[in-house]
Amino acid sequence: MKKKNLKTNYRHLARAQWVFLCTLLSLCFIGCAADSATTGGYSSESLFPEDVSSVYVEMFDNQTFRRGTEYELTDALAKRIETETPYKVISSRDRADTVISGQIVSIAEFVLSIERQTGRPMEKEVQVQAVVNWKNLKTGELLIDNKPVSESASYSTWQSQSFNYASSLAANRLAQKIVELMEKEW
Between 86 and 38, whose confidence is greater? Predict the structure, then answer.
């Protein structure tokens, strides 16, 4: 009696799996055949404006008393544009289609945690804030107009990390955010 029930259960299970697989495949084929209006806006076109092929990256201006971060941000931004976008970074402003520039307006340091016995900071955070512009030199259009961006990174002197380590990391993250701003609006 038990063998007959097991056989019947396996048949029902196999049939349920077959029905599930067929339903899943049919939904996949329906999804592939649909146009972009019915696929929820998914597209295979580029995320970046296609009328731009080259970018000149100006040295960021630093409005703060902490020096060196503008070099790290400019370098990180140029490298990220080269690797993450279809654009070529050009060393001459005259030959470029667009120019990206900006100013670091704030570099702040915050204490995240304090050691109980001595009251010394165990972990701190560095926050870098900037304003970014991206201008199409052919048309004069501002693709990004004074857009504020900020990013932060933490460091711990207990782990032999310094302010310079965290500011460099924050500048790299800020460069990533700026490249994301260069994408077209959906």
Answer: 86
